[in-house]
Design goal:
This protein is α+β, with helices and mostly antiparallel strands and 153 residues long. It has one helix at residues 3-30, and strands spanning 37-44, 57-67, 70-80, 83-84, 92-100, 103-111, 116-125, 131-138, 143-152.
Length: 153
């Protein structure tokens, strides 16, 4: 091999390594937060067209499954105003959405005894991926307010 061929081969090798490093750095810094697992999500109703709902809370136990940036979750309502409710009142909830870096955006469907309620959740995920804070809005009496989520073991 002459000098020019060796130089071209060396430059190609260096460019390959740089390209691989750029790919890994971009993937690491742009990877979505991993929120798979058990969570408790609390909705705090601050606004509603039905005044008795204002100030109420509902807390759900959910299990999130995540593939890349897509999430699906299933769970049940367990507490109202921080009081555990009877098992027969554990309305099922289903969530579907995405995680973009540390932001969760999803829709939910709550299958209540009297009606099905739908809504949207937007939340920021903590750097340690153990909590989230955000907002929700739902079709049940135009409810809106903050949500807080805690990862459970």
């Amino acid at each position: 091999m002459n000098r020019t061929s060796k130089l071209v081969a060396s430059i190609a090798s260096v460019l390959t390594i740089i390209t691989a490093l750029i790919f890994l750095v971009e993937r690491y810094f742009n990877a979505p937060a991993d929120i798979s697992g058990n969570w408790e999500i609390k909705q705090i109703i601050k606004e509603s067209s039905y005044k008795p709902y204002i100030g109420k809370t509902a807390t759900f136990k959910i299990f999130i499954t995540q593939t890349d940036n897509e999430i699906e979750a299933k769970g049940e309502k367990w507490w109202i105003d921080d009081k555990e409710i009877p098992f027969e009142q554990h309305d099922p909830i289903i969530l579907k959405g995405t995680v973009d870096k540390n932001k969760l955006t999803c829709t939910y469907t709550l299958k209540g005894i009297k009606r099905e309620t739908t809504g949207i959740i937007e939340a920021e995920i903590s750097k340690d991926e153990k909590s989230m804070d955000g907002t929700f809005s739902g079709t049940a009496a135009d409810t809106k307010g903050p949500i807080k989520g805690l990862r459970k073991k």
